[in-house]
Amino acid sequence: MFKARFWSSVVIVAVILLFGFAGGPFLALFLGAISCIGYLEFTKATKVRPNPDKISGFEKIGLAGIILYYLLLLTTDDSLPLREMFSDWLFRTQGTFNYFTVLVLFIFVLSIVSMFMVYIFTFPRHNITQITHAAFGLIYVALTLSFIYYIRELPHGIFLMWLVFMSSWVCDTCAYVVGVLFGKHKLTPKLSPKKSIEGSIGGIVGSSLAGGLFGWLYAACTDSTYGIIAVFAIICCVGSVVSQCGDLTASAIKRNYDVKDYGKIIPGHGGILDRFDSVIFTSPMVFFLVMLMMQFN
User: Fold this and answer.
1) Distance (Å, whole) CA 135 – CA 141
2) What three-state secondary structure class fits 255?
3) Chain-wide mean pLDDT for the chain?
4) Engineered SS bond to 278: which of 97, 235, 246, 286, CB 3.0-4.6 Å?
């Protein structure tokens, strides 16, 4: 199990590095693919589908919404001809919003309304729990993961996107090591008995230190001042707290539905959500913190 988990982690990191550095349409398509897989893992675990081996109508609508959303992201990439075709209109402001924001909202609202149409015209075949889980999965999986793309598209985004993984996966590793060596007090005894308060603190400190070190490297590679060290340390500190909430949230959902793993696609880890559960919450938080705090550098 350890060997499978280790080599799976190596492959995952290599894939993230590959698509992260490639950015643009490659990253968007990668995130779209894992969002679709993660969405189906979530809906299967939460009993959206009556037959575990057959995708339901709600899930098909959700998948269509996710695909449309990530195709829309492709129109924002400078390297594609689509940007030249749509940029004048897509980013034109109408009142408070530009049309890109309106289309994003439209896709998600249309998906949810379509699910309710299926619900009412097939009543009482389905129950409200199925549709709420199918709708929530769009936000919980697809929208949150797309913030990695938004960070990558920012100036110096090729560096900034790694703050997401320092806040989540570095935190996971540090929390595990510190927890094994020094853990005595349970963090959430009923939800995740193996996690300790000491491990949680170790994860936060480890992520903060990693963020500060990365800030020093970032300042050396860009025109930023060394004040960015403190900014990155704070972002990773907050991000690591949020990542642990994401990890525990995924665990709570699995316990609610008596599911051990969300899937089996990643040997030693489980499904996409088992590996990206902490990233799901962290990526939007890091995006907002970057947008708010980078101005102070």
Assistant:
1) 10
2) helix
3) 88
4) 246
Max CA distance (Å), the chain = 62
Task: Give the phi and the psi of residue 62 in degrees, each rounded to 5.
Answer: -60, -45
Query: In terms of residue numbers, what domain contains 261?
Result: 157-297
Pair (284, 208) in one structural domain: yes
Cβ–Cβ < 8 Å for 238, 107: no
Whole-angstrom Cα distance, residue 280 to residue 148? 9
Nearest CA-CA partner of 65 in 130, 109, 127: 109
Q: What are 199's two structure tokens?
A: 């491990």
In the beta sheet, which residues pair with residue 39? none
Mapped onto helix, strand or coil, the DSSP state of residue 215 is helix
Write down how long the chain is: 297
Task: Report the pLDDT averaged over residues 72-78.
Answer: 78
Residues 36, 80, single domain; the answer is: yes
Q: In whole angstroms, give the CA distance from residue 166 to residue 243.
A: 10
Planar angle of CA 156, 214, 243, nearest 5 degrees: 90
> Which pLDDT band holds residue 159 (cuts at 50, 70, 90)?
very high
Is the omega angle on the peptide bond into residue 193 within 30 degrees of 0, that is, cis? no
252 and 291 within one domain: yes
Question: What is the C-alpha to C-alpha distance for residues 281 and 293, in angstroms, rounded to an integer?
Answer: 18
Q: How many domains does the chain have?
A: 2
Domain boundary among 153, 187, 214: 153
> What is the Cα–Cα distance from 141 to 138, expressed in whole angstroms?
6
